[in-house]
Write a structure and sequence with these properties.
This protein is of the alpha+beta class. The protein contains three helices and five strands.
Length: 119
């Protein structure tokens, strides 16, 4: 059920601590950790502690948590020293958009030039 931890979800396991991650920030509603396959010098994922399969379902159920995730993205950018140079935030929604873990998550990318369109 949406909102509830899923036994087979990688990110739910990171939230509970049963799978290790390099956590950079944690709040009451979010966990942020370094991507294991970084696409930029700074590549941090920000996830809600509650399970929703994608950004759209999270936004429909818990819009305040989406705001928390975006606020954390800004704090991470500042902590990583990329806020003045520019950074990208991305929600991939669905397999066709590159989503591979179906637990809503935001990518914070920076530390190098980011081209547009992203491709």
């Amino acid at each position: 059920m949406a909102g509830e931890p899923q036994a087979d979800c990688l990110f739910c396991k990171i939230v509970t601590g049963s799978i290790p991650a390099t956590v950079v920030r944690e709040t009451e509603t979010t966990v942020a950790f370094r991507d294991i396959n970084p696409q930029a010098p700074t590549h941090v994922l920000v996830i809600p502690k509650t399970h929703y399969p994608d950004a759209a379902s999270l936004a429909a159920a818990e819009p305040t948590v989406v705001a928390d995730i975006l606020q954390e993205a800004g704090r991470i950018a500042a902590d990583e020293g990329i806020d003045d140079h520019g950074y990208r935030v991305v929600f991939n929604t669905g397999a066709g958009a590159g989503q591979t873990v179906f637990h809503a998550h935001l990518h914070v990318l920076g530390g190098r030039g980011l081209q547009w369109p992203p491709g």
